[in-house]
Design brief:
The complex is a heterodimer.
Chain A (H helix, E strand, L loop, with lengths): L13 H14 L13 E13 L2 E13 L4 E6 L5 H8 L7 E6 L2 E2 L6 H7 E4 L12 H11 L4 H15 L14 H13 L5 E5 L7 H16 L3 E5 L3 H4 L4 E6 L2 E6 L1 H4 L15 H12 L10 H9 L25 E10 L7 E11 L4 E5 L6 H7 L8 E6 L2 E2 L7 H7 E4 L12 H11 L6 H11 L4 H4 L9 H13 L5 E5 L7 H16 L3 E5 L3 H7 L2 E6 L2 E7 H6 L1 H6 L6 H11 L11 H16 L1
Parallel strand pairs in A: 3-8, 3-9, 6-7, 7-8, 13-18, 13-19, 16-17, 17-18
Antiparallel strand pairs in A: 1-2, 1-4, 4-5, 9-10, 11-12, 11-14, 14-15, 19-20
Helix pairs in contact in A: 4-5, 4-6, 5-6, 6-7, 10-23, 11-22, 14-15, 14-17, 15-17
Chain B lengths: L5 H4 L11 H4 L2 H17 L3 H17 L4 H6 L5 H14 L10 E3 L2 E3 L1 H27 L2 H16 L5 H31 L11 H32 L18 H19 L3
Antiparallel strand pairs in B: 1-2
Helix pairs in contact in B: 3-7, 3-8, 3-11, 4-7, 4-11, 6-7, 8-9, 9-10
Classes of the chains: A alpha/beta, B mainly alpha.
Chain lengths: ~625, ~280
């Protein structure tokens, strides 16, 4: 029964080989005390309740049974609040089961003596990178874990080298973490985890705050770790990241709803909304294309597979290029927001001065939804803050509606009321105790009294919050998605003409994200102008009619969304990404399909393909 | 001018990664030397010592390649308070019973002893602020942490948990930029919804009143962040019973010893000069 386990890691690469020898060195013995039958991670009848949150304890996990084998690649998905993070934190003993048991490599998490071993076996990368970095120099932060393990100095050095090498951060080892970009910081956090030589890494919504380039990098790193034999567990709201795994665990109200392969999980699209999920965009697009091109068969879940399948598609012989469909040009009237030659330097006049904007420009017409995209650190937030007078132009011209921000006597409060800004992190924007007061904040400051209740009620209606249910809720007990809605409603109560939105959907599950996009569309229909900053090209493509692209503080592209997103290669080189439909169109075009420009959304592509089929039949 | 960059005016606690002779010294030597100088400046009974201290600071700032105007700027924020204290000093300083008033305005007499002690107060605080500033400009957090850890190590033997103490210092220092950043974000969010922030007017009282609504969200967000950071530290094995080791190995060279000796001499000079 007890015997030397077959070590599946022997054939794997140097990184792993090192790990085994290290184990031998530290613990002075070969691990032979593991029963063969027990899985690497073994969860039995796990029950967990969050301690008091708004007077009642909340059942977060009920009766979870799971077994994860070493070397597996697992994705955990589910709606906001379904217990994903709670489950993950049980795997490295950050939370302990109330009932039931969790065993990692045969070690029970309830025994505190096992914690150091468990935590060096299972590493975890969190969502917000800056909160996980302890030291003030990258290299030392990476060393934090090994230092805690009490390893000798040369060994620490070696592990730090390896971890920096794998994550590609060697060059930046002497940097203080707060001067790293979000993507770099997330890689730094991963390096800190890898330096402990874990056998399993959990990624807890690691990519939620990253730009497409950063997400791609993390995806590649995850793939590499998996190939190297690590157990990888990914928690994500991006279905695209989930389908990269071999196995998907879907949580619903703290219970395992589905535990299967990606193709099974997504085989019943009808059940997904109930779980707060959505089909991966590749699957959605594939399904639509299959409607017009039956040649594209089997289910395609991954973008890469879809693009490959499209490029292998036989081109129909008899098709004629259709006449050019005119592209709607953005209005040539005077723009509502006008910014030219804008420069901005933070910490001006100190040795730490750094330029955020270098010759940025921005033009948005009235009633439009204007997308603002660019890699992290390209100056999007800085530019946005110029639009409501939080920042004033140091060099350059800014005009927002009737307000000239270069004028020294401009009424800044009026500007801020005219252009309402909602920030990315809702936790910094809620300062009242009750939701009702929170939303009334701006209107009350404006001096509104009699109509206050009605204003709050209608603002809440616009974001889908029920007035009676929510007005007396405590703001700090709200979930992430609800907080975002309250923050948005709080700004709408100010009745601005322009809405400036910084990443309105980051961290939301697929369903809430769709809802939010719906509200934004409706707001636009009521005549509001929207400026949307986002890392999610699909969102931008779906909503915006015009787009600006920032890079290193300068505007590199500005114009109609269809024109901007046609620059697939340029976007890619900036760490951005064209929406999948545009990418698919580019692939088909390169294979000789006579597709017109102006393909942004799945429907644009499908319509054109349908037309081609029609003309082929005639 | 931008009214939201709170960090811009807080340059104490800001490390400047420059390459200077000071920056290259062993952190332990720097900690000892700065400590000695700060103690001497605090306790020197005579103006001579303070003048030596001021000259020393200017010299050291130069040696550390820190722009003087940048260093002196950190004296500005507390200046109003210092001036109030100094004025009180003028009137309240103890003077010998037979002293001749320096000048008399109505019923109030000003004695030279009062003027002297007011001047010393201003000078003392200026030098102290410069010294603390110098320490933070030239000592990176990690150097300070490792230096302190090494210096305090002997205390572990008598049962004082120096590792934990040093960790507390480290995390506190990590949190200073957090707090400034969070305050900035909250103020901006409030301003965006019509609060008085960053509008080009407002007297001191109005400005003071704005700070109150900032506090609650600042606390909540800081607590939340602290919680995440604690989790992240736990997840990386902090608090395991094994004795922590360190990536950094420090070398105490002869020049470091020399610097410490020099600091002892200067501190002694400041304390006993003019006696």
């Amino acid at each position: 029964m007890w015997s030397f386990p077959e070590n599946p890691r022997i054939r794997r690469n140097l990184f792993y080989y090192n790990h085994t020898t290290v184990n031998l060195k530290i613990f002075g013995c070969v691990k032979i005390t593991k029963p063969m039958a027990s899985p690497f991670i073994d969860i039995r009848n796990l029950v967990f309740r969050h301690p008091i949150r708004g007077k009642e304890s909340i059942l977060a996990l009920q009766n979870v049974n799971l077994a994860i084998e070493e070397g597996e690649y697992v994705a955990i998905i589910g709606a906001n609040g379904s217990g994903k993070t709670t489950l993950a934190r049980h795997l490295n003993a950050l939370l302990l089961p109330e009932r039931g048991s969790v065993r990692v490599d045969g070690l029970d998490t309830r025994d505190p003596q096992n914690h150091p071993k468990i935590r060096s076996t299972v590493g975890m990368v969190f969502q917000t990178p800056e909160d996980q970095i302890v030291a003030s120099i990258l290299e030392e932060d990476v060393a934090f874990g090994p230092e805690n393990l009490g390893l000798p100095n040369p060994e620490i050095r070696r592990r730090v080298e390896d971890a920096l090498e794998i994550t590609g951060m060697s060059e930046l080892r002497q940097r203080p973490p707060h001067l790293l970009s979000a993507g770099q910081m997330q890689r730094a956090a991963l390096a800190g985890v890898l330096a402990m030589r874990p056998r399993c890494v959990i990624f807890d919504e690691t990519t939620a705050m990253l730009d497409p380039g950063g997400r791609r990098m993390v995806r590649e790193l995850i793939g590499r770790l998996h190939r190297d034999g690590l157990t990888v567990i990914v928690i994500s709201h991006f279905m695209r990241e989930a389908v990269a795994a071999d196995r998907i665990i879907v949580l619903e109200h703290g219970q395992v709803a589905i535990d299967s392969t990606p193709s099974t999980v997504f085989s019943h699209p009808g059940d997904l909304p109930k779980l707060g999920l959505d089909l991966p965009q590749a699957a959605r697009l594939a399904e639509k294309i299959q409607g017009v091109l039956p040649g594209l068969s089997k289910p395609l879940l991954r973008s890469g597979d879809l693009l490959a399948a499209l490029s292998n598609l036989p081109r129909p012989e008899r098709i004629r290029a259709p006449g050019n469909t005119p592209i709607r040009a953005p209005g040539t009237v005077t723009p509502l927001i006008e910014m030219d030659g804008l420069y901005h330097t933070y910490m001006l006049g100190t040795p730490l001065a750094h330029a955020a904007l270098r010759n940025a420009s921005f033009h948005s017409s009235e009633g439009a939804i204007h997308g603002l995209i660019g890699p992290t650190g390209s100056g999007k937030s800085t530019l946005l803050q110029h639009m409501n007078g939080l920042l004033l132009p140091q060099v350059g011209r800014v005009r927002v509606g009737p307000y000239d921000l270069n004028h020294p006597k401009v009424d800044l409060k009026a500007v801020r009321r005219f252009a309402g800004l909602v920030f990315q992190h809702p936790e910094y924007q809620l300062f009242e105790q009750y939701v009702g007061d929170e939303i009334a904040y701006a209107a009350r400051l404006k001096g509104e009294k009699a109509g206050l209740r009605e204003i709050v009620r209608s603002a809440m209606r616009m974001v889908g919050l029920d007035f009676e249910t929510y007005k007396d809720r405590l703001t700090f007990t709200l979930s992430g998605g609800e907080r975002r809605k309250v923050a948005l409603a709080g700004m709408l109560a100010m009745q601005p003409e322009i809405l400036l939105l910084d990443e309105p959907t980051a961290g939301l599950d697929p369903l809430s994200r769709r809802e939010t996009l719906g509200y934004l569309k409706n707001l636009n229909c009521t005549g509001k102008t929207l400026v949307l900053v986002s890392h999610h090209m699909e969102d931008v493509a779906e909503l915006s009619s015009s787009v600006s692209v920032l890079n290193k503080g300068a505007t590199v592209l500005e114009g109609a969304a269809v024109h901007v997103f046609e620059q697939v290669d340029l976007l890619q080189s900036l760490g951005m990404e064209a929406p999948l439909a545009a990418q698919a169109a580019a692939v088909l075009r390169s294979k000789g399909w006579p597709l017109n420009g102006g393909i942004l959304k799945p429907d644009d592509l499908v319509d054109q393909l349908a037309q081609l089929q029609e003309s082929g039949r005639e | 001018m931008n009214n939201f960059e709170f960090l811009r005016f807080v340059n104490i606690g800001q490390y400047l990664p420059l390459d200077s002779y000071l920056h290259r010294l062993d952190p332990r030597a720097r900690i000892l030397a700065y400590g000695l100088i700060i103690v001497a400046v605090t306790f020197t009974p005579r103006p001579h010592g303070l003048v030596v201290g001021l000259l020393l600071m200017v010299g050291l700032l130069r040696l550390g390649r820190i722009p003087l105007h940048y260093a002196f700027r950190s004296v500005l924020p507390p200046l109003p308070f210092l001036l109030i204290l100094a004025v009180m000093q003028i009137f309240l300083a103890v003077h010998p019973a037979d002293a001749v008033p320096f000048m008399t305005i109505g019923p109030v007499s000003i004695f030279s002893a009062g003027l002297l002690s007011a001047g010393m107060l201003l000078l003392r605080f200026t030098v102290l602020i410069l010294a603390i500033g110098l320490a933070s400009f030239t000592l990176s957090t990690s150097e300070m942490i490792h230096g302190l850890e090494a210096l305090l190590a002997p205390l572990t033997r008598i049962g004082i948990p120096t590792h934990d103490f040093v960790m507390v210092v480290q995390v506190t220092v990590r949190f200073i930029p957090f707090l400034a950043q969070a305050a900035e974000r909250i103020a901006k969010a409030q301003a965006s919804r019509g609060a008085e922030w960053g509008v080009r007017k407002g007297n001191l009282w109005q400005r003071a009143r704005q700070v109150a609504p900032l506090m609650v969200p600042l606390f909540l967000t800081s607590l939340r962040r602290a919680e995440t950071m604690a989790l992240a530290m736990d997840a990386r094995g902090y608090g395991s019973p094994v004795r922590r080791t360190s990536l950094i190995t420090m070398q105490f060279l002869w020049r470091d010893g020399l610097v410490v000796c020099l600091a002892v001499l200067l501190a002694a000079a400041m304390l006993f000069l003019g006696r």
